[in-house]
Amino acid sequence: MVKIFRDKLFTRFLNYRRGFVVLSFIGLLTACSSSPNDINDNSLVVNQSQQQSDLGPYQKNADLPSVVTYQVIDDPLRFINEPIFTFNDVFYEYLLTPISRGYQAVMPDFIDQGIGNFFNNLAEPVSAINHLLQGEFKRSGKNLSRLLINSTIGLLGLFDPATDWFDIQQDRTRFAKTIESYGVGRGAYLVLPFIGPSNIRGLVALPFDHYAHPLNHINDDEAASQLLIINGIHRQIPLLAKYPQMLEGVDNRYEFIRNLYIQSSKRDQEFGEKPVIISTKTNEMEKN
């Protein structure tokens, strides 16, 4: 299995490296451009039961309907996106899926919950800043309240009394939503290495959210980088553990994921997004 993963990963990486250089250049040129309508109104749709996560592009809210279209979608960067998607697909299935399954097999639920609470608490300042920039002062105040309560009573965020005792639910937001509130369009659909489906607006927003995270302001840069990677993987473990099964029987994985992502983004834009309640339990997923 290791040899298969290594050979496939190396081949996809060569394609990905060339594509990502071009992608970065295009991103600089088109970051603030709005995309045309991605899907026609008469699209054929198929129900899919999935959920979303804050950074997890393959997930959506469980309580909202989702659709996948098989009609032609505007995808001008497909020549870049598809090699990166193929690289991600191999990376997820042959490396992160086994790691995620092993983690679930050995990690007690209460410890896993504590780890999730800790990282969620560290992300509260990012949401507070973005809510403030969006003019959502009350929601920003709730983020700060959660940070204060969970950092003290919750023992540095290992527990979540803000939710359990005070009913202050976690409400994530990111810089992509902030610049959207100022009229910046999504731009072209694209796939980011390791992260997955996104768009030009998401690419532009990533550096702000990254450097606004408290872990980037500790003295140990190496430890900060490692914790950020662990955080990113930890939030995706429930999905990664079932990644092959989720796409089993799908003829074209790239088009399926792309269509699902664009449809859910279009739905959120038209009908609005609900505040996202984050859970790290293994039977729940999160939103992007």
Tell me what you see in this structure.
There is one protein chain. The chain is mainly alpha-helical. It has one domain. It is 57% helix and 5% strand. The chain has twelve helices and four strands, in the order αββααααααββααααα. The strands form two sheets. A two-stranded antiparallel ribbon has the order 1-2. The chain has a two-stranded antiparallel ribbon with strand order 3-4. A hairpin with a 3-residue loop joins β3 and β4. α1 packs across α2. The chain is globular and about 50 Å long. The C terminus is likely disordered.
What are the defining features of this structure?
mainly alpha, two-stranded antiparallel ribbon
Topology:
Layout: H1 2-30, E1 45-47, E2 67-69, H2 78-106, H3 109-122, H4 124-133, H5 137-152, H6 161-164, H7 175-181, E3 189-192, E4 196-199, H8 200-212, H9 221-234, H10 237-240, H11 243-246, H12 253-271
Antiparallel strand pairs: 1-2, 3-4
Helix pairs in contact: 1-2, 4-5, 7-8
Question: How would you sum up the global shape?
Answer: globular
What is the CA-CA span between the terminal residues? 31 Å
Number of strands: 4
Number of domains: 1
Report the C-alpha radius of gyration, rounded: 19 Å
Helix content: 55-70%
Reported for the largest beta sheet, the result is:
2 strands, antiparallel
Structural class comes to: mainly alpha
Oligomeric category: single chain
Low-confidence stretches: 12-55, 57-66, 274-288
What portion of residues belong to β-strands?
under 5%
What is the N-to-C order of secondary-structure elements (H for helix, E for strand)? HEEHHHHHHEEHHHHH
Helical stretch tally:
12
Arithmetic mean pLDDT: 79
Strand order of the largest sheet: 1-2
